[in-house]
């Protein structure tokens, strides 16, 4: 069980320490409000505004009156219709904190700042503080993220279960349908079809039987998200991309082996880059090395150098590595790990992206896996 009142008390205490009357938390599609009370606005035109006073009193405002019943049920809070986000802010408030963004998206409508100024209410952003708190997961959150990872794993196998997919639309539809059937509220499968292809939105590209097919899958559950990468390859494609596959798997293993409480993210990134450099593929790296996941993706920490972040116990991080180079192949792989006292471990053992022997420091085979006869057996490792 998530202790939502404790989370709101934490924001109340922060408001009091900053001399603020309270905090306005706003969400449109992202998860700031959900983290504080369990209610997610859902469909694209809805939003939610949560007021948390410095005294701990909380009120949830939703855009549409027909959402009031669901909002009250899921949050356990007094709920009101709020035609504007600041409708939940008490008239006496003169200085407030605002949380409306995460590491990827700022959802605060531009009209809100103007309306606050018109009402004589000063404000300061508290997004960084809440995002830092969200980066550390408790047991219930980790269990939810593991369920999301299991759904992603099953969906990847669903995508490999037939040779009938003619283009990237069909493959993405099969993967996304498998996620939805298992409880995902949102699912997005990106596809890169063929040697050197960038993983992106499906657009009708034919799926080559003699080339690698990369996918990036992101899903949303009511209590967590999933984010994984995978490459389907068989026959000559698997042989042609063996060097890229081995480099990606070894780089991911080096990253995971370096992740430990207190370790600078810069050191984690350097470990992955060094391994790719040993394989002559650093200049062919595609994407970053990953980021935190939680109620949303991405979250902190981001595996990017220069941000000054450190690894901490309780973080769940999607670690992925991808390369694109015609001579040595195209490959992308990755999925979530969880940080414990002794370092990082795969959140879901036996998943298509996991390589527990490599993480443990065992020898990684330098020959391609057995050549599958159909795409049904093409999910590597």
Automatic annotation (TrEMBL):
<dbReference type="InterPro" id="IPR050659">
    <property type="entry name" value="Peptidase_M24B"/>
</dbReference>
<dbReference type="InterPro" id="IPR000994">
    <property type="entry name" value="Pept_M24"/>
</dbReference>
<dbReference type="Pfam" id="PF00557">
    <property type="entry name" value="Peptidase_M24"/>
</dbReference>
<protein>
    <submittedName>
        <fullName>M24 family metallopeptidase</fullName>
    </submittedName>
</protein>
<feature type="domain" description="Peptidase M24">
    <location>
        <begin position="144"/>
        <end position="324"/>
    </location>
</feature>
<dbReference type="InterPro" id="IPR036005">
    <property type="entry name" value="Creatinase/aminopeptidase-like"/>
</dbReference>
């Amino acid at each position: 069980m998530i202790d939502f009142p404790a989370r709101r008390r934490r924001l109340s205490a922060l408001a009091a320490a900053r001399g603020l009357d309270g905090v306005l938390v706003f969400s449109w599609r992202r998860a700031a409000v959900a983290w504080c009370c369990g209610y997610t606005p859902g469909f694209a035109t809805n939003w939610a505004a949560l007021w948390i006073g410095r005294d701990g009193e909380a009120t949830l405002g939703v855009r549409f009156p027909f959402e009031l019943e669901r909002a009250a049920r899921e949050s356990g809070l007094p709920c009101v219709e709020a035609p504007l986000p600041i409708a939940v802010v008490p008239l006496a408030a003169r200085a407030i904190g605002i949380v409306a963004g995460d590491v990827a998206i700022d959802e605060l409508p531009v009209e809100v700042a103007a309306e606050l100024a018109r009402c004589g209410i000063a404000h300061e952003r508290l997004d960084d503080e809440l995002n830092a708190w969200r980066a550390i997961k408790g047991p219930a959150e980790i269990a939810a993220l593991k369920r999301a990872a299991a759904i992603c794993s099953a969906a990847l196998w669903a995508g490999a279960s037939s040779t009938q997919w003619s283009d990237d639309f069909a493959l993405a539809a099969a993967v996304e349908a498998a996620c939805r059937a298992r409880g995902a509220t949102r699912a997005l499968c990106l596809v890169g079809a063929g040697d050197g292809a960038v993983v992106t939105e499906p657009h009708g590209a034919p799926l080559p039987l003699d080339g690698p097919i990369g996918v990036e899958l992101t899903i949303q559950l009511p209590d967590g998200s999933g984010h994984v990468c995978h490459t389907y390859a068989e026959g000559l494609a698997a042989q042609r991309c063996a060097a890229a596959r081995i480099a990606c798997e070894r780089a991911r293993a080096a990253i995971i082996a370096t992740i430990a409480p207190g370790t600078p993210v810069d050191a984690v990134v350097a470990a992955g880059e060094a391994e790719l450099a040993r394989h002559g593929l650093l200049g062919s790296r595609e994407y970053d090395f990953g980021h935190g996941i939680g109620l949303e993706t991405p979250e902190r920490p981001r595996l990017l150098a220069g941000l000054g972040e450190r690894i901490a116990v309780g973080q769940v991080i999607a670690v992925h590595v991808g390369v694109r180079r015609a001579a040595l192949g195209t490959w992308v792989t990755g999925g979530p790990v969880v940080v414990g006292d002794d370092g990082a471990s795969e959140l879901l053992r036996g998943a298509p992206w996991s390589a527990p022997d490599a993480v443990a420091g065992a020898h990684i085979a330098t020959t391609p896996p057995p050549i599958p006869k159909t795409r049904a057996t093409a999910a590597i490792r």
